[in-house]
Amino acid sequence: MRRLFLIGIGTLIIGTVVGMGSTSAQAADEYEYDQVHSSVSFKARHLDISWIHGRFNDVSGKFSLDREQPSKSTFELTINVDSVDTANEARDEHLRQPDYFDTKQFPTIEFKSTRTKAIEGGYKVTGDFTMHGTTKTITIVLKGGKEHDFKKAKRVAFSTELTLKRSDFGFDESAIGPIGDESLIMIDCEGVRR
Amino acid sequence: MLEPSLYLEAMASAAIISAACVLAINALRRPASTTWLNLASIPGIGLGLVTGYHMLAWRWTLPPVNGLDRFLMIVVPATLVIELIAGFPAVPRWLAWLLRMSLASMMPRILLHGSVHLSGNNGTPWQAVAVMVIAALLLVILWSLLAHLSQRSRGVPIVLALYLATQCAGLTIMMAGYIKGGAAACPLAAILVAAALWTWLAGSGRFATAPSISPAVLGIGIVGLFGLLLIGIFFGRISIVSGLVMLLAPLLCWITQISWLRHRQAWVVGSIGLLLVALPLLIVLLKAKHDFDRDMAPLLGKGKASVLQH
Q1: Among A113, A167, B14, B180, which is least packed by CB within 10 angstroms?
Q2: Smallest Cβ distance to B299: which of A91, A103, A133?
Q3: Can you tell me the distance from the alpha carbon of B106 to that of B50, in angstroms, rounded to the nearest whole number?
């Protein structure tokens, strides 16, 4: 009788733990980066008097959002650098060359989160940012996270801005003359649940 | 940014240091021999290149991350080491050529390492292999033919032909928008001018008595030209046709070997050879200038529309 009772209690505990685990796994929603309703744009100083604006047209990514345990949320973004677009084809072609992005050697810019923390109005995400063959750990603040059901697909959106120094990522310093070292990158990302 | 005065300073420093070093070492042993001159040219080339890139304030990154870094930090030193080994009389000719061919076959793989050309993003793996094999074969053919020519004809013109092609490659790469890639040609071209000078001086200032071009100079000249062009084509924006014309132009010196020309005075033969080499290079340069004026000049503030500036 006692043995039966112990087996029953054990089964209950294991069942609860397994059940909790599956609940937790279900709590994390997987989202695909929606290229149509998202954008990665940037601006950089020109001659220290004005700004050049541009964007990357080919971006992909995914994120997993766990509302109950935000630290389990993950974010990934991959930018195809060849898709740089500053509204001037000659300048874009020059930016693809080794003096700048060197897209034949370093075709992508990537971000992969390693730590996520929920904050007021969004998430503070730390991760590895790889550009021009150099990886650095950066922290970004993702604002937003509101959900919207549109045509039976759940959507979530985030926005962030970050400032990067090109010299920190091995860009040739002699090419940093007319275009400033610092670039402001603006990411507006809408995800569609898989 | 384009800095013509800096490039000229780098070239002058590289040429002066290189020539001074070779002539100083050569003076240590009298009478000088071709073998000694060849061995002396290796530290001369190395020191000249280091000086030239130092003047350009070259930023070296370890490990080398791009094609140009791999070229300057792996391929060029490897060429000098191979030519140093090959320069000793005890080393058999077949071994020297085996080393050179090994370098030639590995060079495209080294320069394209880690790029989209080998990752399969830019075609199939077989296409990548085919590109590397064809590139290596071209280098082997060019090296063999110029080495054979250098043994048939005396000294200076072949070095100057390689100089013209290297300088043209640098300018073309630069005008196509890869400024640092073009600047990398300056010290290499300067070394070839210096080599022409020391070869001429070794012949007591006469073309007719100048020794055969040093295999080390020939090696660094050919590898330098090939490396720059491969980088210019695969990482920069120069066309394959322009690249091939510049690579193969020095072979036009072979035309001076036809019987009615080769027995004329050495300076006449040399001048005709250089003229033949210069003509296709001039056409490539004019084409590059035309493309530069159309595409790049507005970005550098030289066009009429300031809105197009970088």
Answers
A1: A167
A2: A91
A3: 24
From A116-120, B33-37, B74-78, B138-142, the region with the lowest mean pLDDT? B33-37
The whole-angstrom separation of Cα B105 and Cα B112 is 13
User: Are the Cβ atoms of B179 and A175 closer than 8 angstroms?
Assistant: yes
Q: How far apart are CA B152 and CA B252, in angstroms?
A: 14
Based on its alpha-carbon atoms, the radius of gyration of chain B, rounded to whole angstroms, reads 19
Q: Which chain B residue lies closest to A53 (C-alpha atoms)?
A: B310
CA distance B112 to A105: 8
- Cross-strand pairs, A145: none
Confidence band, pLDDT 50/70/90 cuts, at residue B258 = confident
Helix (H, G, I), strand (E, B) or coil at A136: strand
Residues 6+ apart with CB under 8 A from B253: B146, B149, B153, B157, B158, B161, B273, B274, B276, B277
Q: What is the ipTM of this complex?
A: 0.83
Q: How confident is the model at residue B201 (pLDDT cuts 50, 70, 90)?
A: confident
pLDDT digits (tens, 9 = 90+) for A119-160: 999 999 999 999 999 999 999 999 988 888 888 889 999 999
CB atoms within 10 A of CB A16: 10
CB contact under 8 A, B117 and A104: yes
